[in-house]
Amino acid sequence: MALSYLTKRIKKLKIIRWRDLGDFFKILGACPCGLVLRLFKRRLWLVSEMEHTARDNGYWFFKYMRETYPDRPVYYPIQFTSPDYGKVAALGHVIRYGSFRHHIYLWAAEMHLSARTGRGLPAPFMCRQFQMLGLYPCKEVFLQHGVTVNLPPFLLKERNRIDLFLAATEKEAASICTGLHYDPEQVVITGFARYDNLNEFEVDEKLILVMPTWRNWLFPPFGKTPEDVAEEVANSPYVKAWCGFLQDPRLEAFLEERDLRLLFFPHNQMQPFLSAFSGGSRRILIGDTAHYDVQEALKRAAFLVTDYSSIFFDFAYMGKPMCYYQFDYEEFRARHYPEGFFSYSEDGFGPVVTDPDSLLEELRRAEATGFRMDPVYAARTENAFRYRDGQNCRRILEAVEEFRKKGGRKGEKRR
């Protein structure tokens, strides 16, 4: 079994590029420095997510640690060219993403807490190989990027080195164990760090937010760039469906009549293809991550339209109404993620529609009710979350400390 696992990793190494070899030697060079630093900076933690942003669970937990325990050696790597660099730097303990110091601190870390698997590492591809071979001494705490409503294969226990998996809901935690094969003691319900920032907000009653998730069959495969697949993406049924909605004259008339604005904000993985999307009205804005913050958009919007994105849990946490536009359900399940514990029709926090006519009708109905959540869906949101007290970051810290107290047991050898 161990030999089989090693063989898989060796096959993975066959796709190494020349620049990866530079990363390889940088990792090796940082190793002795990091292991020495580990002797002097005990309990050093790295908290990370995407290399170019600080807006997810990683950032909010890091912010909590810096403001509540400023003397603790907790660090956050980010690109210094990031639009979010300033707010992270203001907290202190920031590291230039991908720097030699970043490599050293990864070797020195006791804990690596990340909102993204395989991201936040100084050299994502090569560091991931070291990580999966169990060479880094740090324990891996998965803060998550969103509620695991589906069963994404990349999160399977046998494909990761996750030692502690943090969850937001009861059913999600159970699904992580049964569907993704984690041991019950590896999964703790703490709530998400970013939810602590959702308890106070002001709603713009004139703003509709549209946030579809991505499609992995449209994302460029390894070795290709977004430019290589841009034409294919632009001509895909996915883009045509959303552009058909955004350019529908009936939508334009509705927005004008009711004095509304619509912010179309695609998933981060679809941001490279933003130019493929366009609206038919001056009231329709196309959101990019350089100018719009996802969480601020969620807090301001009065109504959410999504397809399958788990971002709807954030919206439901705030008790705000939504609907799901699922025009490609069968293809999504076959080519993107298999269904998990969550049924959008039976567990969802809003109605499911599958065609543009029904979507426009739902928007009109929702606006006519003052964008208020239906009691049926409100009851579902009340039952979905164990915690809504603004103490998720505290619970995350307690869960990690309890994990440490028990010896921080590494997961069993992966197959």
Please explain how this structure is put together:
The chain has helices spanning about 1-10, 20-40, 55-70, 85-90, 100-110, 125-130, 170-180, 225-235, 235-245, 250-255, 295-300, 310-315, 330-335, 355-370, 375-385, 390-405; strands at about 45-50, 75-80, 95, 110-115, 140, 165, 185-190, 205-210, 260-265, 285, 305, 320-325, 350-355. It has about 425 residues and is of the alpha/beta class. Residues about 410-415 have low confidence and may be disordered. It starts with a helix and ends in a 10-residue tail after the last helix.
Q: Which structural traits does this protein have?
A:
six-stranded parallel sheet; 2 domains; Rossmann fold; globular; seven-stranded parallel sheet; single chain; alpha/beta
Quick summary of this structure?
With 415 residues, the chain is α/β, with parallel strands linked by helices.
* Elements, N to C (H/E): HHEHEHEHEHEEHEEHHHEEHEHEHEHHH
* Secondary structure: helix percent: 25-40%
Query: Could you name the CATH topology of the largest domain?
Result: Rossmann fold
Number of beta-strand segments: 13
Query: How many domains in all?
Result: 2
The CATH first-level class of the largest domain comes to Alpha Beta
List the helices and strands and how they pair.
Layout: H1 2-12, H2 18-40, E1 45-48, H3 57-68, E2 74-78, H4 85-89, E3 94-96, H5 100-108, E4 111-114, H6 124-132, E5 139-142, E6 164-167, H7 170-180, E7 187-189, E8 207-210, H8 226-234, H9 237-246, H10 249-257, E9 261-264, E10 284-286, H11 294-300, E11 303-306, H12 312-317, E12 322-325, H13 329-335, E13 352-353, H14 356-368, H15 375-384, H16 392-405
Parallel strand pairs: 1-2, 1-4, 2-3, 4-5, 5-6, 6-7, 8-9, 8-11, 9-10, 11-12, 12-13
Helix pairs in contact: 2-5
